[in-house]
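Record type: monomer structure entry
Structure origin: computed from sequence
Chain ID: A
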Amino acid sequence: MAGGKKWLWVLWLILSIGLAGYFALPLVTKQDQGVFLMGETTQGHHQIELECAACHTDPFGGKEVLQSACVNCHGDELKAVNDSHPKAKFTNPRNADRVKALDARYCVTCHVEHRLDKTHAMGVTLPTDFCFECHQDVAETRPSHEGLDFESCASSGCHNFHDNMALYEDFLLEHAKAPMFAEVARVIGRNAEQFSANPHPSLQLNQADAGNNITAEIAAQWQHSSHAEAGVNCSGCHAEDATSGGKQGWVEHPGQQVCASCHSDETEGFLAGKHGMRVAMGLSPMTVAAAKIPMHQAAAHKELSCNSCHAPHSADTKTAAVEACVGCHASEHVSNFKRSPHAQIAEKEGLHPDEVVTCATCHMPRIQAADGRVRVQHNQNANLRPNEKMIRGVCMSCHSLAFSIDALADPEVIKRNFKGQPSVHIESIDMAVERDEKKGHRSSVYN
């Protein structure tokens, strides 16, 4: 009898140690942490769902810990768009009653992860009429809103909870009567040469220091590339210690950190977007196969890095601006790009380069830094969700505000890649003008 109990204790001990090891191993190795997942994650976070510490930085901090994690990744973005519902608004004592109804001081009040079955657009897990909690009496001050469904506030192209930069009433009025097409329809021009302080002279083909490590074809491509023009020799990227300026050894496929040693702004954007966020968290690169949106099966094996979009030995950026996108993405919107009005612009003669529209024109737009330098935003998600973010920075480079709002609110015209007219009309500009006319203000602005 005593011997039987002893074996039971031994068996219990072995099982306990095994169970503890089963859960401890993913924490120690930081791999295969899926065992801890409480449920499926949203499209915004599924790439990093196995790096639990990205959000759960402390097991005992509760909402404050999660809030810090949200702000660490999204704080700059909210600040850039002048967040219309900042935390400060809800810590104001005058809004204490509203906080009781909806505690918007914390991101997780509206965005709860691991509840994919209850998640709506933009990762919102509240009922879609949540605006009612604070704005139920809006019709008293805005008669134009009388009878409008609160479910339509954020889904009909009128309002965004955080980013209303293209939808504020003054902005609507200012651009109310603009023609459908801008007189000069082009994006902001590149100006990198104005800021270039490169001390190195351009290199010629006979100066390439790759030896027998490259083919004649690659050498010829490099000769005409921006790298050769900037005096960057083969060893500048392929040497084992390239990031420290050394020239020893040879690396066939340099990593993203080599690109980052010169292209820090672009790398920062890449790591902030869905393409690079896994690398930013110390995980393996995102693969096409791991995406949760339609992708081409033939590209499933690809790992996303600088070189998966850019051809580093070529001066042609068209590959990265179009071919790299359509080579992986398989949505109706992407598949229809080459038949779209945007793509057909490139076929016109005498076109200025800044008039050409590519995938990158809209999804990785050129932006101007405080010092005036124009660079490409490599965070392709910076203006993607909600799509109204694109209105001011992208669409209005060529189109009117009214057309842009209607087009981005029409899922079918988006699927057709903007071929044809929008079939929906958002009345926000009409309502703003009508309200302003009744007040007798700003007639000189929109007439």
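Annotation 1: Residues 185 and 437 are 30 Å apart (CA to CA).
Annotation 2: The first strand starts at residue 366 and ends at 368.
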